[in-house]
Every structure is written in structure tokens, then in C-alpha cells.
Amino acid sequence: MVPSRSGCIISTASVAGAMGGLRPHAYTASKHAIVGLTKNKACELGRYGIRVNCISPFGVATSMLIDAWSGHEEDGEGMDFGSSPCEEDVEKIEELVKGLANLKANLKGATLKAKDIAEAALFLASDESKYVSGHNLVVDGGYTTSKNCVGL
Q1: pTM score above 0.85
Q2: Does residue 131 carry a catalytic annotation?
Q3: 93-105, pLDDT tens digit by residue?
Q4: C-alpha distances in Å from residue 86, one per residue of 45, 52, 72, 90
Q5: In the beta sheet, which residues pair with residue 20?
Q6: CA 117, CA 113: separation in Å to the nearest integer?
Q7: C-alpha 137 chain-centroid distance
Q8: Which of 57, 92, 144, 151 gives 20 to 30 Å between its CA and that of 110?
Q9: Domain spans in the chain, listed from the N-terminal domain onward
Q10: Closest C-alpha among 108, 136, 109 to residue 120
């Protein structure tokens, strides 16, 4: 990218990198680090025409989220999916995420899907965002605008 004096780097952070109170602590710290690294790399690489941004999504029913939730079964906060979740389990997680979003996010009537995050990445990679660099694009339905700390 440096020799061609152009390019775009997009990292995935999380709403955990935009607020406190989410657990586990190592995950939250790593997402804050990604946001900071994004800003530093944007400063460093901007002179070469390289844009650096990150996306911070709210909860999306992905295999990572399913694995994370199933990993807390012992403390009563997770769900037991056995060795691999089936389609019904994924739908259950999607319903839980949708319910949480409707309770917590400001934007009502929409549910965040993995496709929405992909579309945000496409925007950041496109010429439509040619002057956007060092930005943390939070895709959370307004969740972080009203919540600055989540009680554990």
C-alpha cells in the first residue's frame, strides 16, 4: 500500500471499545486497543494516502457470540448448546440479541445482522468514504449514545 500511495485498512472493534462495563475485561481492553491503534495508524499512514478505520458493532448473532454465551453456562448467564449449535440455537441467539437491542438501543424496529456490518465495511472501503480516516464507525442502533457503562 505504501508504494502505491493508496489503500484502506479496516479493523473490527466492538461497542466494548467505545464504552466500559462489558466483560470479560481482556475482550474490552483489546477492543479499546483496536480503536487506539486505528487512530495511531491513521496518523502514521495518512501521508501515504492510506486510510485506516474500524467498525464497532453491537451484538450480532455470530458463531463467536454463540460460543461466548454458551461458555458462561456455569454461572447461569450462558446457554448450553452442546458441541455445535444448530439453526434453532442460532435463531434463539438472534431473538435474544434482538430483544436486547430493542431494550437497550435507541433505534427501534431494526435488528443488527452480520450483513449490516459487511455493508459498513464496504462503505469504509469505497470511494464514498475517501476522506474518512481514523474513524471508529459504531454500528449499534444508538446504543452507546445513551449508555456509557453497562452494569455487570
Answers
A1: no
A2: no
A3: 767 766 665 556 6
A4: 43, 36, 18, 6
A5: 149
A6: 7
A7: 9
A8: 151
A9: 1-58+123-143, 61-111
A10: 136
